[in-house]
Every structure is written in structure tokens, then in C-alpha cells.
Amino acid sequence: MRNLKAVLKRELKGYFESPVAYVFIIIFLLATAGCTFFLSRFFDTRIASLDPFFVWHPWLYLFLVPAVGMRLWSEERKSGTIELLFTLPITLIEAIAGKFLAAWVFVGIALALTFPMVFTVGYLGSPDYGIIFTSYIGSFLLAGAYLAVTCLFSAMSKNQVISFVLSVVACFTMVMLGIGVFTDFLNSFLPVWISEAISAFSFFTHFQSFQRGLLDSRAIIYFISIIGFMLTANAVVLEMKKAE
Amino acid sequence: MIAVESLAKSFGSIRAVDGINFSVDKGEILGFLGPNGAGKSTTMKMITTFLPPTSGTARIANFDIWENPLEVRAKIGYLPESAPSYRDMNVYDFLMFTAEVRGYDGEERRSRVVRMLETCNLKEVAWQLIDTLSKGYRQRVGFAQALLHDPEYLILDEPTDGLDPNQKQEVRALIRRMGREKCIILSTHILEEVEAVCSRAIIIDSGRIVADGTPEALRSRSALHGAVTLELIGAKDRDAFAELQKIEGVEKVVELTDEDKPGAPAVDNDAEKPGKSSLRVRLFPKKGVAIAQETARFIHQRNLEVDAFTLEKGDLNEVFYNLTRGGQA
Ligand SMILES: Nc1ncnc2c1ncn2[C@@H]1O[C@H](COP(=O)(O)OP(=O)(O)OP(=O)(O)O)[C@@H](O)[C@H]1O
Ligand SMILES: [Mg+2]
Asked: What would the pLDDT profile of B22-48 be if each residue is shown by its tens digit?
């Protein structure tokens, strides 16, 4: 645990010592605000709800989260520091968890900085704060799932750009599994129970349950398992690839 | 003690390390020699638990690299080849990070880092980003990281690579000093370094050990070992050339041109200059015979004018060449 903390602190400090972190946070805030106010026409709806804000998260995270996570292992392998890291008395699990948590905390901070949204909607009307709370939880879990996918692909390539592209494609697929157009397409040639099983794996469907104001334990377990699975795969890939 | 047993590593069809056995005791400084791609770094990566061997094992202080990798890592200080470090950190923070992972905190952690900054002459760059350091300084950062926990076992992959001559000397002195109570393995391409630092040397070629012994023992394998080199003055001594052959124990006599002189330029017409009368010859002994005394007596008897008399200790470069590339050619 001490080493996990050391890795986490180092990574997190790394984020905040580089200008990229601030650029990321600003882009994230501008993009969420822009989507909410201009694309969703937040004011025109005249409904005191943050739905028009959260509905964009799966799409914004699609690019922003891989941008945060792509360097985690690519950089380590490219610069050879992975040899340093894995000859220090640190276990693979500590290193993987430490890096993942650092990036997750970072995205969490960016998410928390959207709090003026809550004030805005509170000022304009009387929203259901319970739904806002569960939506934030859902959004954070969703970001974690994206990030775990990114960690896996970051371990696969020394090239950050390749890691980024692969992560975006993989995350996009995981979202699309639950989108209507895609399930309709699957329904056209697959039995319904199979297409339903596939869409049950979607990030999107599980994220939606939080937006209904539920802390659905199935959805929570789903996201936690996705994270666990991706990070385990990350460990396997690292063991295989670290020598290269 | 570090004990390496039948250690082997294949990368696909490449047999990088092909069954290596040796052990190193406390107080020994073992030098790894070998041409590029011989498998030195790969061997070190396996001993330090970074790479899993294809077969075989190594034990460090009785901890097996398979069974107790974390204990092995805790015991070892490792400087990987070309000293990788986190370039987005400054030197102080980087060392603080390794100190934390090594289990130090509070005052102890800080004081260890400060001591390392002093030992490795890093004080003036302590707050500089590692990314902006010169190669030699980065090498020193790697060295500091490896020594921070005062490990009993040190594995250094080309530790003096990229250092300036003064720093090289300093690092060598430091290694020699530490060698008294530690167990050190280092790799190098500088044969003088082996003679200056190591108590023992292993020559690796194509993943196999081709020689293992003290630098002196290895040097004595050289054909040059025990030969006598003379510089004779005066034209008349040319006549003595044939006579030198008759000295007891001498196998053959060769005349040396300036090209044989270490450090001589490749093209040097000095020898052909008219009026040049000095003669350089080398007397090679028959196997196992000492000829220095006989030669000295001969010089005395004949009243030869001798400018220089050198008893050759042997040349590690030659031994290295013969055991590695030369052997295959
Ligand atoms: N990750 C890898 N994948 C494939 N081959 C590798 C890998 N690492 C090393 N090799 C091969 O293993 C052999 C030994 O390499 P190693 O780095 O151990 O040599 P070395 O003795 O340290 O050489 P140098 O003096 O150049 O540092 C080389 O043929 C090298 O190409
Ligand atoms: Mg090497």
C-alpha cells in the first residue's frame, strides 16, 4: 500500500506539474459547458435538470480520457523507466493500481470542477439533487471504465498516439453496444436475446441507470468489474511486453 | 552471495543468454565483458528480476528470483543500461520517490537523498528537471538511485558510460571502496576499467561464458604475456638481431614498427627516415618460460645500448579479441 501511494503521488504530481493538465481541465470545462448550453440548449428547455449536461459525458470522455491515460504505460516503456520501476520493490498490482488511481483522481478533479453547473441549475429552479448526485457518481465510474481501457491499450504500444487511437476505438465500441441504432442493426440478423446480451455490456446502458437517479448496484458492480478486468488484462500485457 | 545457475534467455529464435553459471561473493567486484549483443545486459535484467529467464535461476542472499522477487529487489541496487529515470521530475523529487519506495520516510528519507546528492556530485542540479540534464549527469542520477539504500548487492550496467574522465576516476574509486563490503557486478566495454576496478572478470560471448578469472589470470593468457620488448640504439645493433634468437627460452624475435606502438598514428613514416638507427624488438618466450633474466644477462654480456626494457604483462585487448570475434574468424 505504501508503494501504491508513492506511485499514485508521483503520477498525480506529474499531471499537475505539466501544462497539459491545465489545458485538459480547461478543455473539459469548456466542452461540457459548450455542449450543455449550445448543443442541448439548456436554457431553452426550461427544465431544472442536469440531464443536458450529463448526456454528453460518454462522448466527451471518449477523447478526453484516452488523452489523459495514453501516456501511463507507453511513456514508461518508451523511456525505459519501466525497467527501473519493476526492479524497485514494487509489485505489479501496486504499480498498475497506483497509476490508474492517479489518472482517475485527476479526471475526478476535472469532473468536480464542473460544480458551477449545479449552482446554475439550483439558481434557475429546483432540481432533484439526488439525481444530480447519482449522475456524478455514474459519470465518475464511467470515466474509470474508459480509463481502465486506456491503461490496457497504453501498455500495448510504446507509441502514445497509437495507444490513444486504439483506446478511443475500444471505448467507442463499448459505448455503441448500447446505442439504439446499433442494437437495431444487431436485431436485424441476430436473435433478440443475443443482441440484448451484447448491449448489456455497454457503458452507455449502465451509465443511463445513474441518470435516472438510481444507485443501481448492478451498474456499480458492472463498472467495477470492467475496471478490474481491464486492469488485469493490463497486467498480463505488461508482463508480456515489458521486455521489448 | 549471488549465485547464477544455468540461466538462459531466448527472444524468439535469438538465444541471448545460453546457460550461464557463476557465483559472486561479498567483497568481490565482478566485471562482465563481452562484445555488443553478448548478453550482458540480459543477464543483469534477469538477476534483477526484470526479465523472467527462459530457464535456470539466480539467488541473491538466498532469495530466489522466481520465489522472492520483491526481497531480491530490496537487496539489490541496480543501474540499468543508459540509466533511465523519470525525466519530468527534478533530481531531488526523483530520489525522494525512490527513497519512499525503498521504505524510508521522514527525516531519514530526506537525509539519505541529501547524502546521495553529495556522493554523486548532484547538489548543483538538485532542482533541475532530469530532462534538461546532460548525459553524464543523468548517469549520476541513476547511480544515486542505485546506491540510495546502501544495498549489499550492486548491479551496474556500464556505470561509467558517458562520464567525463574525472568522474570516471571518481566512480571507479567509489566502486572500489564499496567493493570491500559489498558484492558488485558491473559490465563495461573499457578493459582498463576491469583492470582498475574488478577483482574478477567474466567474458561473455554469444550468451556463453568464455573466460572467468582475475584480470591478471586473463591477461596471462595473452601471447604477449612474458614477452620482453627492447629498444636498442645504434646501427651495429642490427647485427644483434639474429643473436637475440639464441637467448635461452626465446621462441621468436620480431621487429616492431611504430604502428605497434600504442597510440601511434596509423600512417607514420618515421621508421623509414634515413639515419634512424634505433631498433625495437620483441622477444617472445617459449611456453611457460621466463626470459627476462636471460635477456638482461645477454644485454650485459654484449654491451648493448638499451634505451628501454619492458617485461610485458599481457594485453587484455588481445585476450578479449581472441576469445570473442577473433575466435570465430
Ligand atoms: N527485448 C528483446 N527482444 C529481442 N531480442 C533482444 C531483446 N533484448 C535483447 N535482445 C537480443 O539479445 C542479445 C543480447 O543483448 P544484450 O542487450 O544482453 O547485449 P549486451 O551484452 O548488453 O550488449 P551491449 O554491449 O551492446 O550492451 C542481442 O542479440 C539482442 O539483440
Ligand atoms: Mg548491454
From this structure: 999 999 999 999 999 999 999 999 999
User: What crossing angle do the helices spanning A203-211 and A160-176 adopt, rounded to 10°?
Assistant: 60
- Nearest residue in chain A measured CA to CA from B88: A14
Mean pLDDT of A115-127: 87
pLDDT at B262 over 60: no
Place of cell 578469472: B213
Contact B73 A89 (CB under 8 A): yes
Helices (H), chain A: 2-17, 19-34, 42-45, 51-54, 57-69, 71-79, 81-85, 92-112, 116-124, 129-156, 160-176, 180-187, 192-199, 203-211, 217-241
pTM of the entire predicted model: 0.88
Q: Report in angstroms the alpha-carbon separations of B4 from A48, B66, B67.
A: 70, 12, 15
- Distance from chain centroid for Cα A235: 19
**What is the separation of C-alpha B129 from the centre of its chain, rounded to a whole number of angstroms?**
31
Tell me whether B102 touches chain A (CB under 8 Å).
Answer: yes
Chain A within 8 Å of B308 (Cβ-Cβ)? Answer: no
pLDDT beyond 50 at B264: no
Q: Ligand 1 atom 5: the closest Cα is on which residue?
A: B11
ipTM: 0.89
Name the burial class of residue A137, with classes exposed (0-12), middle (13-18) and buried (19+) by CB atoms within 10 angstroms of its CB. middle
How many residues comprise chain A?
244
- Angstrom distance (rounded) from CA B68 to CA B14: 28
End-to-end CA distance of chain B: 37
Q: What is residue B218's predicted lDDT score, i.e. its pLDDT?
A: 87
Nearest-CA residue for ligand 1 atom 19 is B37
Q: According to the model, what pLDDT value does residue B269 have?
A: 47
Mutate to test the interface with B, among A88, A90, A99, A240 (most CBs of B within 10 A): A88
Q: Does B59 touch chain A (CB under 8 A)?
A: no
CA-nearest residue, atom 29 of ligand 1: B37
User: In this structure, are strands B153-157 and B76-79 parallel, antiparallel, or unpaired?
Assistant: parallel
pLDDT at A74 over 80: yes
Please report the residues numbered 44 through 83 in chain A whose beta carbons come closer than 8 angstroms to any beta carbon of chain B: 79-81, 83
Any idea what DSSP says for residue B238?
Answer: G
Is the pLDDT reported for residue B329 higher than 80?
A: no
Q: For testing the chain B interface, which of A83, A236, A240 should be mutated: the one with the most B CBs within 10 Å?
A: A83
Q: Give the pLDDT score at B234.
A: 65
* Ligand 1 atom, smallest distance to B17 CA: 14
The residue with cell 463498472 is A223
- Look up residue B110 and give its amino acid: R
| B51 close contact with A: CB closer than 8 A | yes
Q: How far is CA A78 from CA A160, A244, B98, B144, B222, in A?
A: 9, 9, 20, 22, 42
